[in-house]
Amino acid sequence: MTVAFLSHSDCGRHDTGWGHPEHVGRIRAIPRALREDPDLMKALLHAEGRHATEDELALVHEPAYIRAVRKLAQAGGGSLDADTVASEGSWDAATAGAGCVLDAVDMMMDGRAQRAFCAIRPPGHHALRDRAMGFCLFGNVAIATHYARSRHALERVLIVDWDVHHGNGTQALVEHERDVHFVSMHQSPWYPGTGVAADRGPHQNVWNVPMRASLPPQTYVDAFLHAVDDATKGFTPDLVLVSSGFDSLNGDPLGGFTLEPNHMALLTTELVSRAKGWCSGRVVSALEGGYAPERLGQACVAHMRALAEMASFGT
Q1: What positions carry a catalytic annotation?
Q2: Nearest to 286 by CA among 20, 52, 1, 42
Q3: How far is residue 132's CA from residue 146's CA, in Å, rounded to a whole number?
Q4: Closest by alpha carbon to 136, among 253, 283, 299, 286?
Q5: Confidence of residue 314 (pLDDT cuts 50, 70, 90)
Q6: Is the pTM of this model over 0.90?
Q7: If you average pLDDT over every residue of the chain, what do you get?
Q8: How far apart are alpha carbons 47 and 159 in whole angstroms?
Q9: Closest residue by Cα to residue 302 from 247, 274, 260, 252
Q10: 239-244 and 206-211 beta bridge pairing
Q11: Please, are residues 157 and 239 in contact by the beta-carbon 8 Å criterion?
């Protein structure tokens, strides 16, 4: 059983400035935390992902929008929306981030790995078809969903999103596919104001789980797993994609959930257990939020230990 750890050096070239919550220190914290766990570090298959092509981005995004992002980066950067910026390196970072997730899907399908975690930025689950939003340029997980179905002829894909913010972009980019099921647990009321429980999507293939802040952590764990089980009644996914937002951790500056790294490990273990029965354990996880870098690193390590089915540790 092999778990891949994918990233790309270009993900660090997305320069938002140190005053921005989504700064490069987030991704640097992950290998720093991983070095503190030499057993896990040795167990992982380390790989540098590739860049997604414009045609691959166009699986979910308008070509005119893709060109606009590239041109803005080539011109030195600028604002894409009120809180989303681009720099000279953002095109390379965003295409590398999406490409890492596509590479991870390929690794699942050709047998190089059974599971994967992609340490990437910028995040993607708010990006819409024709515009950036909420720190996100391209919909990494949504692109990977359509890629898995078109390139590898996978029929059914389950996407789960435990970021503290609703994955509105992912939902918009996949909800018209009857054989894609999407589960999002998120704080409500909170940014971006979408994701009410009654929004089930055009094919009843969306499970939104809005939750209040400051609840006991087990309440979030139970609600999330209940939604996953609902989403897979009579539906056996061929692949599980995880939008791993670690801003759902207790103390994150952009969220009010109370989860600890051991709860992220528990959620991961439960997903892996289910995925073994569904799709030979194929799980691809991609980093979304998480804005307390040290805590982010700790949670990523706990998450990867659970993906690798190594005993968890700490809180």
Answers
A1: 126
A2: 52
A3: 19
A4: 286
A5: very low
A6: yes
A7: 97
A8: 23
A9: 260
A10: unpaired
A11: yes
